[in-house]
């Protein structure tokens, strides 16, 4: 059988499957490669160096890999099959990096969880009291169950004879009318897990259901990344591969199990003690987790299989917790406004706010909601990836060495900070927004986005006919080549921010809320938390309001999931929200195009909405 | 590998399991042998003849098989292991006979079944109506579901994309709030099955849930018979064998599956079209079916694991019907008053009768209830087996050749009928009751049960010191030996009928109902249907009331199961009944002993309760 060895880890993979690609083998070897296209040979991210032979060069290699790299053996891992023994080196920049994941999320909610842990002592049977195990337990629970209703699965009922024929103090682990477990163990049912399944990152929170305290938090990259960076590539992967859905499902389930295990290990409890996992994710993540067909989400009219809140026994999808435990999802609103956004809305408490607010959650997708206690409208834009650094020349996620903030002086000197203070490798979303905002303020770019190459600064250069602004010089970077913002990067960013702004303004019109009436703009998610509100406002990402009312609310999706785990009423609220929200499909709005084209300008073609920004610009 | 061949069928069984007994091999070969002791070598019923060798004789063989049979190779099949090639002949009298099973059961109940089959046409999604599959279906069901509540399992939801994205007329198969199936098939969900799981016999009824019509009925012996004739031997079998419970469960499930298949085949539908099976059985059958531990039922204080009505997805216990279908059991009342008796009570409509009635169900166990709409008390007696012919010299079940009715003339001539008119092989329950009643009337036995051997009739003989009455002479029988009632047989019957009578009288006292106030005595089950009320009354099996008010009500347990299948309210009634019935544990009643000893007499020591019987006796 052909064997492939990966360096520097030294992991060996043997396979008799002549169709196994090197990228699939790398995943098996525990070193998943970066990928945007999901293995279709179009993104060029899964580069490896073959050291054991001079490997054949495919058409895609020639198109996507620079000649000098081709010479030293670099190839696309997704285009090469493991048909012979191979030794492969994975350059560190192509290992899927561990991103800085936003885990902070604060909740303040009364604990009244769906999982209840009720201490109980059950009377022993006798000839005068020849009552069945189940019925004696039910009597002992008395008023602590709903109208005397109690159900239990066959395996739980089968455990009764051992437990209920001797005098013991027990705990009944209840969920609604169902008895999930009868335990003598103190920890059983005491904890629950909330998981935010993002397209890029997955965060799990282990919560004490009694105190509401967060006991542990663990996060990781979503391993589905190996099948595509964004939702659409993964849906395409699922359509093009017969076992696509099941691969996507098993990889996210594996990730969840690992995170749950890590959380439990950190406070020394067993995963068997956990009886509920509340998950939030966008509609596609939701469908992939539950193994539902995503084709409806990929094609117009973009309908999910199920939107409503949904729960299954954890074992049905392979999530390993207490035997009869559940995985529950909050409801989705529509094909592109998922349970994660419902969770954001729960955490933002928009539904109980008198003053209207705007909530923007820019993750891999962007979701927007506007409203207050009287009503909420929501929409989504496929504008997210640019804010995560995707499709930009030096864009990268928020990992080590990413420039996260920068400023440009009048002399076009650039000063910046990087994540963990390492030598810069690229720019993450907040860095890109800073860069463009600062370039605009410094007069490097015009309102329409054009780089003024005529300024004649050494920071501006033209390569292959395209203008570029040098953010970090060759000497400063880890790659020994300069980090630049190209004209095309600016165009990408213009598209992204214009979509967000146009969507926002349509929602605000719909709700009859002008920006002067907006009480606050709440920014959820990692990008929202790290971006400088001032920079985002200058490029016109959102309507102009005073900066002290633009507030980062952290991982609000995670916070909403925790709230739902800790309080049953919050779930009812979620269902109410999901059904009462007015979902606005932007593709069906005639005004969208106009708004979008106006918003391509910095801050906007119609400057009257941005008086403060315009005065800042003119003052520099 | 040793091979064993069974004659006359010629079936071959190969085995490498040196522990496999010949009786187990016979079961595998499709010719299960009769057995009362469950293979413990004590009942002597599993006799076979070894023709391939002169087999070793075990201690049990010597004790239980007459010398002349030992000589011709007869051995106990449960005591012989298949360690070498064998040829085995099974004498026809030892093949477990197919009993005449009482299938007739009439129900008259409005059809309002738990399984509902709702025609539905679901609006297609569009950009203006981008609503999820599940939610569009729920809207389409509208007022036909309870407060808009709808749940469905993951596999059912997974079927939506295929069905709900093109215009089709569908049927939603609902049970409570749960959608069990979405079908384009006319038959799906139209039928249900009610099954009466008796200790000895199993009867399945396929019902049309729309019309309430019985479409098919199939019955068979309970295959657990191979592990013991009565409930107690089976519970002992389960305790003594590590896989005992699972063997008992799988054999009854297999039997149910076969009966369901046969029912479905007879009207050419698929078992997948069935989504509910309602079962009734005694508490032990109930526990064995669901795989629950029966040890609590075998030992004082005789508590079940669960009494309440209970349901599981059919697949959980291996019952093969529609994927998400259910097996539901009516509630049990106590360890020895099971769901089958609750079903009998449903069918008897005792709970809506103003006039008090007595319901007696003599199956393998005997259950008794007394009461009316104001209250019901129930008990059980382990008195049943004798009425099924067990433990009597020539007792047999109601199969071919059983004497079912007889009369004795003043000259002690006996005339009788047999089942299917064959040469007599023994006496079934109704035949035994006739025999003893007629013997008593003819003066062959005294009121205390003693046979008057001093009568000097050729019908009376003494063998090994024991008096016997010859019912059928050697020339008349199929075995070429006389069929007799021995003194010991009479004693067995006295014990049995005394227990029934004592139990009945205690219940009647408890409910303050004298026999003069009894409106009717309803006899359920096969014995109750076949026994001559006049004979039963003469031996004092039940209180004396006019004979036209002693009514056989057929397989009332089956009728009750059908009612519960056809009407949801009947199930609520069943739960109400099971919890409101006063269960009387005879073992805890001080008066029981006195009543029992009095009732050992014919008709009773206290003749004042039997004026009519006494006048009949004295007139003969």
List the quaternary state of the chains.
homodimer
Structural class of chain A: alpha/beta
Helical run tally of chain A: 20
C-alpha-based Rg of chain A, rounded: 27 Å
Largest sheet of chain A: 6 strands, mixed
End-to-end gap of chain A: 67 Å
Q: Based on Cα principal axes, name the global outline of chain A.
A: globular
Task: Describe what this molecule looks like in 3D.
2 copies of one chain form a homodimer. Chain A has 620 residues and is an alpha/beta fold. Chain A has 5 domains: 3-94, Beta-grasp domain (Ubiquitin-like (UB roll), Roll), CATH 3.10.20.30; 115-183, Ubiquitin-like (UB roll) (Roll); 191-339, Domain of unknown function (DUF4445) (Nucleotidyltransferase, domain 5), CATH 3.30.420.480; 349-385 and 494-619, no CATH class; 388-486, no CATH class. Chain A contains 20 helices and 27 strands. In chain A, the strands form 6 sheets. Chain A has a 6-stranded mixed beta sheet with strand order 12-11-10-13-15-14, with helices on both faces. Chain A is globular. The N and C termini of chain A lie far apart (67 Å). Mean pLDDT of chain A is 89; it is low at 96-102.
Task: Give the gist of this structure.
The structure is a homodimer of 620-residue chains. Chain A is built from 20 helices and 27 strands. With 620 residues, chain A is α/β, with parallel strands linked by helices.
